[in-house]
Amino acid sequence: MSEINFASFPQKPHGGKLVNGVLTGIELEKAMEKAKELPMIMVDLEAVITLEMIATGVLSPNEGFMVEEDYISVLTEGRLKNGVVWPVPLSFAPIGDRNKEVIKTLSVGDEVVLADETKEPVAILKLDDIFHYERDFRATHLFGTKDRKHPGVDSIYRRMGDTALGGPIQLLRRVHWGPFENLRMEPKDTWKLFYEQKKFHSVGGFITGANPLHRGHEYIHRNALEEVLVQN
Length: 232
Fold this sequence. Notes:
By secondary structure, the chain is an alpha+beta fold. It has helices at about 25-35, 45-55, 70-75, 95-105, 135-145, 150-160, 185-195, 215-230, and strands at about 40, 65, 110-115, 120-125, 130, 165-170. The protein is built from eight helices and six strands; from the N terminus they run αβαβααβββααβαα. It starts with about 25 loop residues before the first helix and ends with a helix.
């Protein structure tokens, strides 16, 4: 993101840098060729979307899925191992019998292709860590319960396997957002829009998830907006 002068902006990317893991041009061509020879792990749509968020800098300063040290630090301290605040672990523990067999063949330092349901490559993951994924530990530290009636807890046990893979990713292919494709804006686009074009001093926003907004969300949003208004 060298073309963006963050030093001139009133706000900086979280953790001090805006990640860019989207391959283009010759780099993309070479990576696609390499992907043909690498072991493959299948991922669901939620993981595909997460990969795009990582690569485009939405989840900066994370460059990929967390290694065990960061994973535990986030759950127990609410921070990455380097001290940067981060509330929820960004982890990858594939499920499925075929994926488990592939994982058994992997070692730290290897690269593996992550592919969607069509078996088309989405990203390449370089393995910095392979560790046991303790679902009970995540559930109790993140949600304070192991009760699967909690949708977040249920997702942990339903979508996560026994072994986690950590390391940086390179994005090979993005999701097409259909009728919303023309509205797509990545962090590098919004930084330029907010601070170069519109000359804003600060920006407040919120993310809409799968669950309806509730009073807790309202409280957070109101406080964030009040902070922005005070700054302006």
